[in-house]
Amino acid sequence: METRRNTALVARFSAYETAVEIGIGRRPEVAVGLADAGVSVTATDVADPDTLSVPPEVSFVRDDVVAASERVGPGDTYDADLVYGLNLPPELHRPALEVADAVDADFLFTTLGYDSPAVPCETESLAGGETLYVARKRE
């Protein structure tokens, strides 16, 4: 589903060459939009990929970002310019930030709207009323 929010997120994220979406769930629209814009996108989720309907233009790896943050290295899956999460619950903010730190990637995320960020971050306002949290920017 194309929305002003998704369009704004794709526009913001399409400056990156590679991206990893944490917890894609059943809403692949932003990842597909990025793939269509020429960004190499990998999606992760703990769910069975057969239940998620991830389209073929988006690579999928079944993984848990919490487990990835606890490994010596999070793994090649996360080797990207951008790690992002949409509607990311607070309990995943710190693990996702730790993964982004480990691979020297930017970490941007949105929340469900009523959740506060669980990590220090800056905010950006996007079209459609979306607040984007910027927890890590590469130097």
UniProtKB/TrEMBL annotation:
It comes from the Archaea. InterPro entries: SAM-dependent_MTases_sf, UPF0146. Gene3D superfamilies: Vaccinia Virus protein VP39. Belongs to the UPF0146 family. HAMAP family: UPF0146 (MF_00341). This is UPF0146 protein ACFSBX_09440.
